[in-house]
Amino acid sequence: MKKYLLFISILILVSCKKSENIEKNNTRNVVSQEESSTINNAVSDENADIEDKQNIGVPKESRIIKSKFDTKLLFGIWTNDPEGPHADFDLSKKSFYVVDYDGDGDMPYLINEDSIKVYYNDFISIGIIQNVTKDTLKIDWDKNGITIYSRWKG
What we know:
By secondary structure, this protein is an alpha+beta fold. The chain has two helices and eleven strands. Strands 1, 2, 3, 4, 5, 6, 7, 8, 9, 10 and 11 form an eleven-stranded mixed sheet that branches. The protein is globular, with a radius of gyration of 23 Å.
């Protein structure tokens, strides 16, 4: 009788564990779908072993199709925190250079009208440029709200 009860207990335990794993996978899929609606993950040297990521075909160089804003105002070194120790990025004709990035900070980008698409090593970030002046740049990154940058004075 004890062996029978032990066997039943093990079956129940295994069944509960399988149910828990299915629930975790379903939750992860929902989160993954929500994330993919704003940020497109990509295959790179850093995450090449992740099977569910597709290679996005990162362009070899940056490109401006047509800019709604004057590139003389857009290009420059920008910071989200003027009191901080460093800038956030340097936008130039060549690249979107991420300051303090692990490895190569030069990221190719694409500007079309008021949108900027930055091809990071592991994902794509899409921003809508709201406004740019001599000293201020406003971008809504991945529909997460407007980030206000100041021209780096450092």
